[in-house]
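Hi R.,

Quick one: here's the Cardiolipin synthase sequence you asked about.
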Amino acid sequence: MLFTIVLFVYILGLLSALNAIMTARTSQGATAWVISLVTLPYIAVPLYWFFGRSKFNGYTAARKKAEKLVTDRLQNIVTQTKNYIPQESALGIFERTSQQLAKMPYLQANELDLLIDGEKTFQSILAGINEAEKYILLEFYIIRDDNLGYQIQRTLIKKANEGVKIYFLYDEIGSYELSQNYLDEMRQAGIQVYNFHTQKGIKNRFQINFRNHRKIVVVDGKSAWIGGHNIGDEYLSKNKKFGHWRDTHIKITGPSVIAVQTIFIEDWYWAAEYLIDCLKWNPVSSKKENKKVLIVPSSPADILETASLMFMQAINSATKRIWISSSYFVPDSAIIKALQLAGLRGIDVRILIPKRADHILVYLAAFSYFKTVSATGVKFFRYNNGFLHQKVMLIDDSHTAVSTANLDNRSFRLNFEITALVTDNSFAQEIKEMFENDFRHSYEIKIAELEKQAFLFKLATRLARLTSPVL
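And here's the predicted structure, written out as tokens:
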């Protein structure tokens, strides 16, 4: 009996190892899993079932089905947005490549509001919700039933009682502490509430490693909000552990809202298995500004690694500067090489990350990269005025990104993310000034300081780096 069990476990290990060889996105990941599955199957097999897969089964098929069901609407969207697509001659290589990556066009005639930190962000979101006339779409990774959470809930219930249709999507893993009572109260008010359901489908039953990390609010198809904030008191700097919470969101008013809405609909169809039929699909242009915006969705259901290619494209295209702010820095080898080459080209490369840690393994793993990257002139800064959570890029003097994606393997391969790429000199200046203020509240990490670290600390950073495929 014992021999049969042992044999069965080792056969599972071999089969899982074959699966890792065929499906792992990186050779390093495949090698690590194969060695573990063959030598330690008792431990590695269950870990692989939960954390090993890099493809999200079923979502692509659901997305295609949703597209078929709204073919007439999509054709209408294409027709309506044609007037807002810039001429090909007006786009540079960065923009043309980014469009191919996103499988969406840049759209102009957008107005943007840069929302720095939680107070401005949620003032803007709550004002938008209160102004809603037809419908509200919300999608967040983390929702807490604390003061801010209940303020959002009460406002949504009030609007639902006024006849506004509300569709509310959350990630069940990120929001695992959210009470059932909080959700039931919204449902009783007529709000449609679903979790993203990452374990939906037989092939995803044991898969808990994927996350819907998007943060989206859409009101009446006219305004959209995306960025780093989730719904919780800590995002208003009310958490004693972290203190000031440094984060960034943007409000988009204009045709690009339709692109954000399309991404929400794809996620909604996966979770709820029905389409929302009350949505407005006619783009509304801004009369004040004419900013070009490209909405870039990325997910583990993509054929290409959209998020990592987006970062690679930004780093490689820089001719003057590339400043990146991320709450985590656990990149793959390709991004490391791109950063090193940018430094060797003389580009002003700065990586801004938090001083404080909210995930200790991620915090430790970042140290293992600093020395080799810094050797080429890349500068690392740690933000020390609270906790830095924003995901923002500045490329030269014209291109910017406000995103939900971090500079790490999870955002590259495991998370559903959304990014707004903006081409506009005035908005780039706003982002530049924001970065400069953040650098004033940061300190540069020096190689000499890293070399002084104790052996055990250096060992811990290298061990933490080994966990990067699932961080």
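The domain at 59-295 is CATH 3.30.870.10 (Endonuclease; Chain A).

Cheers,
M.
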